[in-house]
Amino acid sequence: MVADNVFKAIKGKIKFREPMRRHTTFKIGGPAKYYLEPRDIRQLKLLLKAAKRYKIPVLVIGAGSNILAADQGLEAAVLRLAATVFKKISGRNNNLTVASGVTLSRLLSLCRQRGLAGLEFLAGIPGTLGGALAMNAGIPQKNIADLVEDVRVMDYNGKITTLKKKEIKFGYRSSGLAKYIILNARLRLTKADKRQVKERIENYLRLRRAAQDNRRPSAGCVFKNHQGLSAGRLIDLCGLKGKRIGGASICGRHANFILNLGAARARDVLRLMDLARAEVKKKFNITLEPEINIWQ
Ligand SMILES: Cc1cc2nc3c(=O)[nH]c(=O)nc-3n(C[C@H](O)[C@H](O)[C@H](O)COP(=O)(O)OP(=O)(O)OC[C@H]3O[C@@H](n4cnc5c(N)ncnc54)[C@H](O)[C@@H]3O)c2cc1C
Questions:
Q1: pLDDT digits (tens, 9 = 90+) for 172-201
Q2: Which of 48, 65, 218 has most ligand 1 atoms within 8 Å of its beta carbon, as the pocket-test mutant?
Q3: What is the pLDDT of residue 1?
Q4: What's 291's domain CATH number?
Q5: Which structural domain range is residue 242 located in?
Q6: Contacts for 195 with CB less than 8 Å, ≥ 6 apart
Q7: Which one of the listed residues 21, 173, 265, 277 is annotated catalytic?
Q8: Do residues 290 and 173 touch, judged by C-beta distance below 8 A?
Q9: Is residue 157 predicted with pLDDT exceeding 90?
């Protein structure tokens, strides 16, 4: 079988040697051998079957806002749930069933229109619901897990299961869900005054704008905070704000952000991460753990 024919029968969008920099907010990353957007659940199952048969690793991507992809590219099939069926929101009153391909910004605008409170703290996080669940996205005080009732997932054999919240190991920026393909989730929100929801969203956006530099591509915080200590503060105390390697730089406003100054390579970002880890280890004897997903 010619490698490029492996997914030929799959209906949906298929690309070969697709540059990952087109799919990550970092705007970094070489070509993925395959890039696939299956049309529906059936095609998703067929795709997984083909990948298994030919032993091709599958990587699921949402909005690519927490991923650093290797410069040399990926010997894998990158899967994105971007077809209409994976972008549905349904449900009444304060319970919503949200498909994993829905962006957090679209979800929040629906919450604003319907007067549904609970998710406002996610305002300004440039991800999809799938990525937010996999990462248990949030702010220091709240995480998306707080709103989850259950999550519908497919395993890599194509089997679909609904996991209740108590069956999911949600932790700080972790969930254990990345071993599945997240299809959708039921979220329990609270009925609220539309104006108040709007104001809260705007307030979170204001706070975010004041703290972050979003003029350059990034993947948000590169390291997890350490036992309540801000990783950004620790890196800042090592005097690394503004430190540049190649086309990447530690952000001058928020030291846990690494910015792509235009032509950054994954290698530049990794070298800056190594430097920050080494300096923080030396100065505070703390080992920083990456928050971003490094695909190589
Ligand atoms: C400017 C900026 C600010 C940010 N601020 C925050 C913040 O305040 N708080 C925070 O928590 N994060 C923040 N982030 C990081 C990021 O936006 C979140 O982690 C987001 O939830 C990731 O969603 P995504 O769709 O982009 O996921 P991706 O980056 O595409 O993927 C992240 C992980 O989720 C997995 N994944 C994605 N979709 C699925 C799926 N359907 N099924 C199974 N696994 C899946 C991927 O395989 C990968 O392991 C920020 C990022 C940026 C660029």
A1: 999 999 899 999 999 999 999 999 999 999
A2: 65
A3: 46
A4: 3.90.78.10
A5: 231-295
A6: none
A7: 173
A8: no
A9: yes
Same domain flag for 66 and 100: no
Ligand 1: list residues with CB < 6 Å.
Answer: 25, 59-67, 81, 100, 125-128, 130-132, 134-135, 137-139, 177-178, 181-182, 212, 214, 218-220, 293
Residue 238 among the catalytic residues: no
Distance 1 CA to ligand 1 centre (A): 35
Statement to judge: residues 94 and 204 lie in one domain: yes
Q: Are residues 92 and 185 in the same domain?
A: yes
Same domain assignment for residues 134 and 161: yes
Whose CA is closest to atom 33 on ligand 1? 131
Catalytic residue among 21, 152, 221, 279: 221
Of the candidates 82, 77, 92, the one whose C-alpha atom is nearest the C-alpha of residue 47 is 77
| Count of structural domains, the chain | 3
**Identity (one letter) of the amino acid at 289?**
E
pLDDT of residue 205: 97
pLDDT at site 3: 58
pLDDT in tens, 252-289: 999 999 999 999 999 999 999 999 999 999 999 999 99
Residue partners of 159: CB distance under 8 A and separation at least 6: none
